[in-house]
Amino acid sequence: MTKIKNICCIGAGYVGGPTMAVIAQKCPEIKVTVVDINAERIAAWQTDELPIYEPGLLEVVKEARGRNLFFSTDIDKAIEESEMIFMSVNTPTKTYGVGKGRAADLKFIELSARKIAEISKSDKIVVEKSTLPVRTAQSIKAILGEQSNGVKYQVLSNPEFLAEGTAVTDLHNPDRVLIGGDQTPEGLEAIEALTSVYAHWVPRERIIQTRLWSSELSKLTANAFLAQRISSINSISALCEVTGADVDEVAYAIGTDTRIGSKFLKSSVGFGGSCFQKDILNLVYLCEYFNLPEVAAYWDQVIIMNDYQKRRFAQNIIHSLFNTVSGKKIGMLGWAFKKDTNDTRESAAIYVSDFLLEDLAQVSVYDPQVPAASMYSDLNYLQTRPAAENKQMLEVCKDPYEALKDAHAVAIITEWDEFKTLDWERIYRDMQKPAFIFDGRNLLDHENLRKIGFKVKAIGKGEE
Ligand code: NAD
Ligand code: UGA
User: pLDDT at position 1, please?
Assistant: First the structure.
């Protein structure tokens, strides 16, 4: 069996960095080199100011860095000396041409495959770590085969299921590891080689081996099912608000049915993150491509419901503040798409603040991990108004009390733990009256806030 001594990972992002750090930590005899075209990111991985915020990650990196974990921009060298190459590059939604706004943009995958084909002089196992449309391995094989120079390749699919904010625990203790490959003797040998890497710390019964296409499709399906649960409970939150039912009670009541289960039923201002929306759009595109319009429409509805939820939250703020927020200060707590990450991709904060700025609000934001530059760049990307206007209308504060001082309303967007222990009496004193709280996460103790004097509006909670 192929013994893996050197691993290369192309892409040092939210997936490549943590996954390779854990492989290096758990497999000290394997040299793991993570490469990227982004020199700034690689430089940051070599310091204690890692380019991504992830609890527990620095400790893992420090244990292996310099021993058998390396970060480099020398992509050619790392490819050349490795028997196994992970592709962990970004696969965003296409913003141009055929499939614009839906299909996955595979240009970074294609470039990586071409690079591997150009550089390799010995046999390689190429592992798809990025999330990819089903049958992408076919295209990768075609690219690798074009200029094989006698080199033999095996392509495996090994999608990543970690969630941001809990990446290290997810990687240390995964529900499962999925490895898909060709069902040929060479394919099965490659599957076994990758299995033996994970088997250093993952029990074998949790390592699932499948065909290539099943593995690729399982990743998109897993994300679609998770996001679907959030859209389902969010749809019910709207019904709760008009009937006086409580969405948390409903979620608890249905979640105790073991057939449904309790996870991913937390109603919110809408799911964000780099993957749910992009992966469902990709699934919808694939269904349309394979002429399955009913299936495409079914999954599209998950996105439609999520957009509705974000819009509904912002509209509720405007409606409650006497139908206008023009010139009013709205304090926003949280910009990241969930707690314990500095990632803001597709965060509900972007859309909610854009909506409020359209109604000429003055938005003041506090987030413990997100720098101001990311917030402005997120907003500018929407191109709703000139960058100078965003700068003028959106204030970024380093202190939550400053963000909420003189505000007419507080909007809770991210469920950071520290928001629960703020001095809410002080905040009430410093705000305009009536002082509103719009809790997009049902994070706070609403009864206590009402006692202080706040008017509280929460997701899926009707008027009492
Ligand atoms: P990311 O944008 O954080 O990182 C991707 C990195 O790849 C970037 O640093 C980029 O510079 C680099 N890159 C792009 N093209 C390159 C090339 N040709 N050569 C070298 N480097 C190159 O993305 P991410 O969040 O790590 O996601 C990567 C993939 O993993 C995506 O397909 C995503 O869907 C999937 N995924 C992400 C998560 C998550 O939590 N973020 C979880 C599971 C799966
Ligand atoms: C998600 C999946 O959970 C991972 O398994 C997957 O690997 C990853 O996508 C990916 O492919 O990128 P992630 O987006 O990092 O992980 O974080 P989640 O915990 O899934 O949260 C996604 C969004 O849903 C967040 O905005 C979160 O606040 C929201 N959410 C989550 C809810 O609104 N309610 C819930 O009950 C759970």
Answer: 63
